[in-house]
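Journal club prep — side note

Before the paper discussion, L.F. wants everyone to see what a predicted structure for a comparable chain looks like in C-alpha cell form. Sequence:
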Amino acid sequence: MSKQIDDAKIFAIQKFSKDMIDVADILETAVDAVPKDALIGANSHLKNMYDGLKMTQNTLVQVFTRHGLVRIAPKEGDKFNPNLHEAIFQAPAPGKEPESILLVNKVGYSLHERIVRAAKVGVVKGS
C-alpha cells in the first residue's frame, strides 16, 4: 500500500510535466532561432534578450531535473529504440546504418524512468 502511495506522489506531476514540456519546446525554438552571428556586434538588445532566454531555459532544465524529469536527446546515428523513440518517418540513407536515427524532430522526456514523451525521430530505412 505504501508503494502505491509513493508512486502516486511521484507521478502526480505527470500531467503538469507534459504541459511544461511544451513550454520547454517553445523556449528551445526561440533560443535556436537567434543566429549566433547576430549576437556579435552592436545589437545589445538582442544579446540581452537571448541571454535572458538562455538563463530561463537553464533554470527550467534545473527544475525538471530536481523533480525527476529527464531529457531523452538521441543523436544522429544512435540506434533506434522503440522504448525511448517514436519513429515519425523512415527514409533511405545510403552509407547510414539501417534502423539508426537519421533526424531528431523533438527530444523526449521521462519522469522517474517512465516515458512522458518519446523522442520523435526519423529512422534510416532498412533494406
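L.F.'s comment for the group: Residues 44-66 form the longest helix (23 residues). Keep this in mind when we get to the figures.
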